[in-house]
Structure formats: structure tokens, C-alpha cells
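Data deposition worksheet. Section B asks for the primary sequence of the deposited chain exactly as it was used as input, without tags or linkers unless they were present during the calculation. Section C holds the resulting structure in C-alpha cell form. Section D is free text for depositor observations; keep each observation to a single sentence. Incomplete worksheets are returned to the depositor.
Section A, Depositor: J.P.
Section B:
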Amino acid sequence: MGVEHNMQSSTIVDVLEKILDKGVVIAGDITVGIADVELLTIKIRLIVASVDKAKEIGMDWWENDPYLSSKGANSKALEEENKMLHERLKTLEEKIETER
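Section C:
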């Protein structure tokens, strides 16, 4: 009679789905010192989660980052600068056309 083993295998996709669904926080501190004198401390905080889970726990910094989103805090200033540059370009192009 053979012995049956109930082995549940998880694929990388299953593991990743669980991590993104629940979220994982990795935290650590690195301290560099000489003779009991702390010279440098590096605090590392990493969260791995889906966008939906991150929003659920209150993390949405990427929505206001002007380099990652058009809705960024500086987007109004960037729009104004873009408009001004277009006007300057148009003026220069017109000036070049009249000088020809």
C-alpha cells in the first residue's frame, strides 16, 4: 500500500497574487558607528502591494507626483510654462518668417 502525500504547490503567480492582495512590509535599520558613536543611520521601509491595496491603506503619493502623474501638484505651473513656451516659439517663428 502506497503512502499518499497531500502536497499543495504554489506557483510564483499565486504567491505574487497573495502578496499584492494583502501587501508586505519590509523594514530595517542600518547603523554605522565607531567606538559606540553613531555616525550614520539608514532607515529602510519597503511596501509591496497592489495599487488598490496601497490606496486602501492611504498610500497615494504617486497621484500627486508631477513626474508620475498629470494631476501632480505642479501641473498647473507646468501647464502655464508650456503655454508660455508655445507663445515664445510662435513669436520666434513669425519673426523668422518676416525676416526672409
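Section D:
The longest strand covers residues 37-48.
The first helix runs from residue 12 to 22.
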